[in-house]
Amino acid sequence: MITNEQFGATEPFLEPQRAEETVTLEGRRLDYGLTAEYIPVYNDEGAEQARSFCVSYALTGGGAQRPVTFAFNGKPGTSTLYLHMAALAPKALSLTGQGEAAPRRPYKVGDNPGTILDFSDLVFIDPVGTGFSCIVNREKERQYYGVRQDVDAIARIIRAWTARHGRFASPVFIVGESYGGLRGSGLVLRLQQMHIMPSGFVAVSPALSYGELHTSMLYEHHLVHTAPALCAAAWFHKKLDADLLARPLEEVRAEAAAWAQNEYLRFLWKGCEASAEERSAVMEKLRRYTALKAPDLEALNLRVGDKQFAGLLLADQGLVSSYFDARLTYPGRGFDAAADPQTFNMSAACYAAFYEYFGRIMKLPEHRDYLAFNPRVDGGAWDFASGYLPAASGAAPRAGGFASMLADLCTAMKMDSRFKFFACAGQFDLHCSIDTTRYCLNHMDIPAHLRANIAFKTYWGGHMFYSNPEARLQFRRDLKEFYTAALEANVGKEARAEALVIQ
User: Fold this and answer.
1) pLDDT band, very low/low/confident/very high, at 2 (cuts 50, 70, 90)
2) Which positions ≥6 away from 134 have C-beta within 8 Å?
3) Cα–Cα distance list, 423 to 11, 55, 309, 346 (Å)
């Protein structure tokens, strides 16, 4: 058991640390308060089990009824470093170009033109075991390392933060990236069950269902909705036939998607019963839309996964592409997730930006690191089975299934007809691709009239499309429109201006 006394004077967040800052946004000065603190996670008996490190930003004079957005990143064991220091906060990593290269050193922090602070206060939550968050009772560690366990913990953190800061009158929004799409889908319903009614959920490059991110001998439809993303990557690297390279990406991508959803899908369905003529036709179209060579396609049995593709597309140049942002490359042979350049480059830049900024305005712990990623959490400890989709018959899920919280999100949308859902994806994300996300959205079990509550946007970039400053600005504009619609649905047009505070 770790106690406050054991933390002692070396643990600076046992008491909240605060700072007053300003940001210039679209020519206007915004004053805000920043609070970094531990939010305790209690069990049902009121005993503290863990502490979550949270950083919140509140517009000065904004009042207790302003919208408040709770944000987190993805992949079990990942902190909220990326959305915090590169996407949404008022101060963020300074970025140039279109996100096609590693951020330039020295890393600098400056006013973020993509922040949403003018229309929502912000709370960045580091899940238990990440960032500066910690387990108080080690015997209960597994209590937080699982799909539903994690959803419940984040819900308790949100409730505790809301109680501490007196924000129960504020409209609540959730932003989750990658695995955060799965976490957020379950979180909306869990919060409703705790009498906290979110107004909207923003899923950034989401993993809405793990079943749509994996391929096996009998589970091949992921190949269908990944094909357009592979085509986009080949288009970017100018590997496609000349007639395709002469056309806009959206046209080429749509053509590849139409083929994959028809001819390719029928071919995969037939398996070994596909004729030699059908196999030959699919081989030619895969060559045309992925630019892979016939021997490589044959070796893959005409089933091209995102990771295999990332290792093969530029192999003749001795390069491997990122499967999170296929525009990025690194020297090598064969895909290696640990070397993926988007994760590697953005992790280093955001980590440095965090310490550079917060080291100037607050006292940070010297005795332990801010864990951008904690492999202990994801390294076999995560209980994915708690999030397996139930069978259509209602039977309990079996081992070997895939985690998804989409059923929970559908229930939440049925429970609150004013709730809004915004999903988005990057053009060059091979893993959580545009068509993978669209497939999940199109198969949500909700009434037709509720589909008007779903918005879907795409951006020029990869998984972290906000590494492209232009995409980050468009994301901000789209979110302002989304928040406005969600607030109008709940408080009406007349009250919306007061809720947003700044127009």
Assistant:
1) very low
2) 2, 50, 51, 128
3) 38, 24, 25, 22
CA 212 to chain centre: 15
Q: CA 51 to CA 127: how far, in whole Å?
A: 9
Name all contacts of 236-241 with Cβ < 8 Å and 24+ positions apart: 236/326, 236/327, 236/428, 237/291, 237/313, 237/314, 237/321, 237/326, 239/291, 239/313, 239/314, 240/288, 240/289, 240/291, 241/288
Q: What is the pLDDT of residues 192-229, one digit of tens each?
A: 999 999 999 999 999 999 988 888 887 898 999 999 99
The distance in angstroms from the start CA to the end CA of the chain is 49
Buried b vs exposed e over 131-167: b needs ≥16 C-beta within 10 Å? bbbbbbeeeebebbbbbbbbbbbbbbbbbbbbeebeb
- Other beta carbons within 10 angstroms of residue 367's beta carbon come to 8
302 φψ region: left (φ > 0), alpha (ψ -120 to 50), beta (else) = left
CB 342 within 8 A of CB 328: yes
Distance CA(208)–CA(179), nearest Å, equals 7
pLDDT at res. 495: 58
Find all residues with CB under 8 Å of 26, minimum gap 6, and list them: 113, 118
The verdict on pTM exceeding 0.90 is yes
What is the rounded distance in angstroms from the CA atom of residue 500 to the CA atom of residue 68? 10
Indicate the length of the chain as a whole number: 503
